[in-house]
Amino acid sequence: MAASCFVLLALCLLLPLLLLGGWKRWRRGRAAQHVVAVVLGDVGRSPRMQYHVLSLAKHGFSVTLLGFCNSKPHDELLLDNRIQIVGLTELQSLAVGPRVFQYGVKVVFQAVYLLWKLMWSKPGTYIFLQNPPGLPGIAVCWFVGCLCGSKLVIDWHNYGYSIMGLVHGPNHPLVLLAKWYERFFGRLSHLNLCVTNAMREDLAENWHIRAVTVYDKPASFFKETPLDVQHRLFMKLGGSHSPFRARSEPEDPAMERSAFTEWDAGSGLVTRLCRRPALLVSSTSWTEDEDFSILLAALESRCVAAPEASWLQVQDCASGKGPLREYYSCLIRQKRFQNIQVCTPWLEAEDYPLLLGSADLGVCLHTSSSGLDLPMKVVDMFGCCLPVCAVNFKCLHELVKHDENGLVFEDSEELAAQLQMLFSNFPDPAGKLNQFRKNLQESEQLRWDESWVQTVLPLVTDT
């Protein structure tokens, strides 16, 4: 009796889905090419998926993008009439029961909610899914694809289980379950993209998943910032962050000055200050895979090693709002830096590329939970011809070429020595920083859409 009731209940739930799926298959066959893109995260902080969507729209697809709308995406995405953004609701943390129970409730809620949203969205020829997070997205998207005749494309940015392992430990039951889940459902996709050759090889050898490497490339708006635009940016940021303000006011009332630049209202010319401070940028999402204390320790070492560098000012401008932001903000407030000022502004999507294109050096502290993905922040910096110091890990050599486009370091002491060397004669035009910048300017840098046309477009047209 109980078994019969269970079967009847299952049929009552599945029959409407099957009917809806059949209708969506018929509708998809009569419609122009359409793609559904899914991000179980903040769309505004998922640049690679934004670039996928923009490229798909540019090359004839209409796109429905589902994700959390916690921060503003790029204007190009918002203004393109081929792209529809559907906001998802994120279940807030429960305060009842053990953590495993809370996590289970959240996963079930997301699965049902995502299933409902996908089934009532315009059917797609493809479903593009960002992983991580892939739990429960991979299974739900695969199921919807089976019902509606859509082909599932997983874009592997990293492994979700390895990120969970940073918090819970690698042998936690949830982490082991997540690993099994990614491996099992990942094999059911029609096409897999990944961010490094190291990840492609790992997927093939350990997960029996064939993937195509699609390296991150900077979008067209990541480029060197013209000097007049730099000045306007510094003046804007100076309104809320004192390190960007001029140390002294110009004697000529026709002059306008920031900490780095000066504008002559009469001639309209903008010049860099001769004794300007250096501008160091370390973009961070304030997550567990970035040890921000390495940079803080290196800055303290620099103060001791080079006390004469009183002109040096270091800005640390963050691009993230992750869980460790408050922890590191408190740590920064406790530091007593000499000759160095640190600030952590939240930058709008339009201002972030302008800041990278105005900076003198980028520092990357991303170490990768799996050791198989590359920091996109470095890709963006290179697009702006910004030299980088990056902490070393397994596959970093696929992006950062030591002593060519930047430097690789192992710990805070090595980073401190690199900073001292790079800034010892700043702003000497013959210094190492300018040599790195020149190398980046002279290297052939493909932009995202050019690379996408070469790698992804043939796959989605042939699959």
TrEMBL record:
It is a single-pass membrane protein. Pathway: Protein modification; protein glycosylation. One of its GO terms (molecular function) is glycosyltransferase activity. Its main location: endoplasmic reticulum. Residues 1-21 form the signal peptide. It is found in: Endoplasmic reticulum membrane. Gene3D superfamilies: Glycogen Phosphorylase B (3.40.50.2000). This is Mannosyltransferase. The lineage of its organism: Eukaryota, Metazoa, Chordata, Craniata, Vertebrata. The gene is ALG1.
